[in-house]
Design goal:
This protein is of the alpha+beta class. It has one domain: Beta Barrel (Lipocalin). The protein is 18% helix and 48% strand. An eight-stranded antiparallel β-barrel has the order 1-3-4-5-6-7-8-9. The longest helix has 22 residues. It is elongated, with a radius of gyration of 20 Å.
């Protein structure tokens, strides 16, 4: 009889532990991913608010996925050129970052703290190992993740036609702002 009682206790502990691990994953509430190209003749910028992200607070694993065609440009022609000629969004529909934070933290106990997220940045079908500095801070029912980093077009085999080399910078500045909260499974 004692063995059965201990078995039930073990099962209850495992169930509680599993629920606790599920609560340690937080997902996207909202996001703003933008980029800026400081060209000689023209500046180019775009914004996406349609990314998906998840952060595992237990091991620091972080995944961010951005649909390429979700970037909104100031004019339709820029958007068409971006999707058809440069990023080829039909062939490479998403950009992703899969990595890990350099340390673990607890929600509710963090304020404007810098972290490094190291992992694989995949753009235009080309993966590059990157370490991106981000800042994490608590907010109501979640956290805010902010960061800035540069992407060299050559690193991801994104070609600039020779006629447009003065319009598009070879290095693009990227800004991220992501709001994460409890993941509803």
């Amino acid at each position: 009889m004692k063995k059965i009682g201990n078995s039930y206790k073990l099962i209850i502990i495992l169930i509680i532990a599993n629920f606790n691990l599920e609560a340690q994953k937080i997902g996207i509430k909202s996001s703003k991913i933008s980029f800026f190209s400081d060209g000689l003749l023209e500046d180019i910028s775009a914004v996406s608010t349609e990314s998906q992200a998840i952060l595992n607070l237990v091991d620091g694993a972080f995944v961010l996925r951005i649909p390429i065609n979700s970037f909104d440009f100031p004019n339709q022609l820029m958007q068409e050129h971006f999707n058809e000629n440069y990023l080829e969004s039909e062939k490479f529909p998403t950009a992703t970052f899969k990595g890990k934070l350099n340390r673990i933290f607890q929600m509710g106990n963090i304020a404007n703290t810098s972290f490094e997220a190291s992992g694989e940045l995949m753009i235009h079908g080309i993966a590059q190992q990157r370490t991106i500095v981000i800042e994490i801070s608590d907010e109501k029912k979640g956290i805010k993740v902010q960061g800035k980093f540069d992407v060299a077009l050559i690193d991801h085999d994104i070609e600039i036609p020779s006629l447009l080399f003065q319009k598009i910078a070879e290095i693009i500045a990227v800004d991220i702002e992501i709001h994460l909260g409890e993941l509803k499974l």
